[in-house]
Amino acid sequence: MKLRVEGLTFAYEQKKILDNLDFSVEEGAFVSILGPSGSGKSTILKLLTGVLKPEKGEILVDGQKIGGLSSQFAYMPQNDLLFPWKTILDNVCLYGEIHGSLKEMRREAREHLAEFGLAGYEDCYPSQLSGGMRQRAAFLRTALCRADILLLDEPFGALDVITRGEMQDWLLNMRKKLNRTVVLVTHDMDEAIYLSDRILILNQSPARIVDEIAIEERQRNREWLYGQGAMRREIYGRIMDYVDIK
Amino acid sequence: MKKYIPRLAPVLLILILLLIWQAGVELFHVPLYVLPSPLQVIRALAEELPTLISHGGVTVAEALVGMAISLVLAVFLGIVMDCFPLVRQGLYPVLVVTQTVPMIVMAPILIIYMGFGAAPKILTVVLMCFFPVAVSFSDGLAQVDEEYVNLVRSYGAGRIQAYRLVKIPASVPPLLSGLKVAATYSISGAVVGEWIGATQGLGYYLLRVKNSYMLDRVFACVAVIILLSLGMNGLIRLYQYQAFPYMRRKANAQRF
Fold first, then answer.
1. Rounded CA gap, A81 and A102, in Å?
2. CB-based contact B254 A127, cutoff 8 Å
3. What is the ipTM of this complex?
4. Domains in chain A, please, with CATH?
5. What is the nearest CA distance from A78 to chain B, expressed in angstroms?
6. Which pLDDT tens digit goes with each residue over B20-74?
7. Which of A229, A237, A239, B145 is deepest in the core (most CB within 10 A)?
8. pLDDT tens string B61-101
9. Which of A81, A95, A145 sits opposite B147 (nearest CB)?
10. By CA distance, what is A147's nearest residue in B?
């Protein structure tokens, strides 16, 4: 599904966080929103899911205006937010529990446990799993939502460097299988380059999309990523053009 | 062996204190109406066991009913206070004030209003147990990470579902902590109610044997009250262990 955001503006306690934000995401594309910490990246996703209400502006999915909480989006927060009192299987089936299709979703989840590296852990509690496994469980929970657009809010931000790298490799591999429109919010330049079809660059609060970079490469791996120094320099330069250092 | 030492320490300490007590009573020939020896208490306990069991049953029943009422009330009020912040702001300080009224003053007033039956004893238990349960549950609800609620809301959950799926289960650990405290108080609450005016129960028995200067039986009854209070606390712990496996220490241990 195609996503379009027009003139999205949001203020919190008189402080303008987002100012007239415009962007669009094509169906099936993987788009990253890259910006410095505190620039309002997570706010964009919370506005899309309907958890926050915009001051003005419109969110359109396939040309249809979205207002409030919407089932078009599946949101994955920064922390895994797995419920400690639920087993991994019940955690990943949260959407099914909410919408009265728990049995069906359990069956579906069991089919996907192996490719998410969780086979044999379905009856464990989140505290028994490693950080990477918990994050994969949170990802499976997001993927099992009957939503066409996945919103990922720095999903690997809380992980150590090695696990983060492993998770990025895994997500790159999963991209084709997911076959969904994805909006990833991150402050990690390499993560954005590695995973995205397009990078939207956000300036500091009040945030606006100030630039965008398309990445055409189809055959990606770590070697390819390490050779992207020029792109990294270009993105860094574009971010710094708009950073107001006080 | 080393890991059992911390568990054995309080048992050893109690044994040493009992030995000192026994030796002191025998050495100074302390009369029974002043202080019975631990052995005299044990003997009284054995002789009076059927009577203590019969009175204890009444007290436990009152404590259990009082606890159940406290739990239902605390959960209901906790949710209402969480839904309506104005109710919380108004009610919370009142709850704190109710706890400053000594129960020994309240109990006779309750008997004037409600008579000598089980009702005033149960209400005494409720007045003692409700507060720790309500406060722990209400604080638990208030401290739930809003991100969890946002997550289920973004998945299409309504307000009631948000409570069912997130807020209430997340508040179970503090609720159980409150229940453990309340369970320990519950027997004492019933005993206070019975002490003021009753025809059965451990409080009634305690008053009768105290007035007869049978201090060995008084101490035996106190021992039963302690055991029952610990038993009530243990009951909550057992329920927690059985019903919430994720709270077990083993389940919380990191596997990696």
1. 19
2. yes
3. 0.81
4. 3-72+147-242 (3.40.50.300), 82-145 (no CATH)
5. 10
6. 999 999 999 999 889 999 999 999 999 999 999 999 999 999 999 999 999 999 9
7. A239
8. 999 999 999 999 999 999 999 999 999 899 888 888 888 88
9. A81
10. B155
